[in-house]
Amino acid sequence: MTAFQPELLAADFAFVRRVLADFIAARSPEDWGRKTERRAKGWTLHQTLAHLAATAEVLYQATENTLRGLPVSFPLSRRTELAAFNERSIAERLQISPRNLGETLFAVLERCAERCASLSSRELALTIPAPFYNRPLAVAEALGWQLIHPGMVHAAQLANGAGVAPLWVQYSPELMHRQITRLLSIMSHSYWPERGGDLRASINFVVSGPGGGRWHVTAAPDGGEAGEGATPRPALTVWTRSANSLCRLMMSQVSIVGAMMRGQMLAWGNYGLGFKIPYLFVPT
To answer: Distance between alpha carbon 121 and the CA centroid of its chain, in Å?
Structure first.
């Protein structure tokens, strides 16, 4: 998929880094203490940035070790430990200023961009053990993760803490299309076979407008897969009016019912599967 080509990854790292840098530079000291989620235990903007810096560093080190033929280890051994790791890594960094946390994140993004320029197809296909997902990540997928984690997964959460639009609204249609491709790839890795059991089903995503297209995610006992293009016999098809609508839906900025009532989403097929997506495809 073109979303994982080295030259496009490198260019996208440069743009996403610039968007994040502009966002952080524009924040007031008061912004960093604001909540980014509706729930009472939701993170502040400072905590969210600490999470982004911590996880970027951990995955970058794992990627580097893989490329150098060195052992890879993570500070957790199974997916059920991910929430505790996130809370612990945030707490360890709350004495670090947001400016310095931002610089840590930017340094990782810059090193990822530099790495892309020299990677061969063989190196991009090397796999990294990922105890927080249902199967290993290819190096190319890990680089894509580094782009979508701050640039998509938490792009609305960051914006909520500052009272601005999600960061992805600044992306060109071409970049948005690539980011959705990377996001759905990681969604496939996030699937819980333990929760799905014997489930074997494909979900087609059809997105209208600039940056849109067709994608599929397949759930299976071995984890499944994802990619561009629609599958011929999906269990469920999800249509959204725009790329922004899809992202808002997937990042829990709007509910399924709310999106349908506003005409931003339609679905047909196995509705039960649709309502189970947040349960089956969440990282933790």
So the answer is: 23
Q: Do β-strands 201-207 and 236-240 pair in parallel, antiparallel, or remain unpaired? A: parallel
Q: What is the pLDDT of residues 169-196, one digit of tens each?
A: 999 999 999 999 999 999 999 999 999 9
pLDDT of residue 41: 77
Cα 22–chain centre separation: 20
Crossing angle between the packed helical segments 45-67 and 98-116, to the nearest 10 degrees: 30
Q: What is the tens place of the pLDDT at every residue in 189-208?
A: 999 999 999 999 999 999 99
DSSP β-bridge partners for residue 265: 240
* Predicted local confidence at residue 1, as pLDDT: 66
Q: Where are the domains of the chain?
A: 2-170, 192-280
Taking the chain, what is the end-to-end CA distance rounded to the nearest angstrom?
A: 27
- 2-170 and 192-280: identical CATH topology: no
Query: Which fold is adopted by the domain 192-280?
Result: Nonspecific Lipid-transfer Protein; Chain A (3.30.1050)
Query: Top-level CATH class of 2-170?
Result: mainly alpha
Spatial separation of the C-alpha atoms in residues 90 and 47, rounded to whole Å: 6
Kindly tell me the sign of the dihedral angle through the C-alpha atoms of 250, 228, 17, 136: positive
The widest CA-to-CA distance across the chain, in whole angstroms, is: 52
Q: How far apart are CA 253 and CA 133, in angstroms?
A: 23
For 14-26, what is the mean pLDDT?
A: 97
Of 112, 125, 121, give the one whose Cα is nearest residue 9.
112
Q: CA–CA distance from 39 to each of 44, 87, 259 (Å)?
A: 11, 16, 20
Around Cβ 105, how many Cβ atoms within 10 Å? Answer: 25
| DSSP annotation of 268 | E
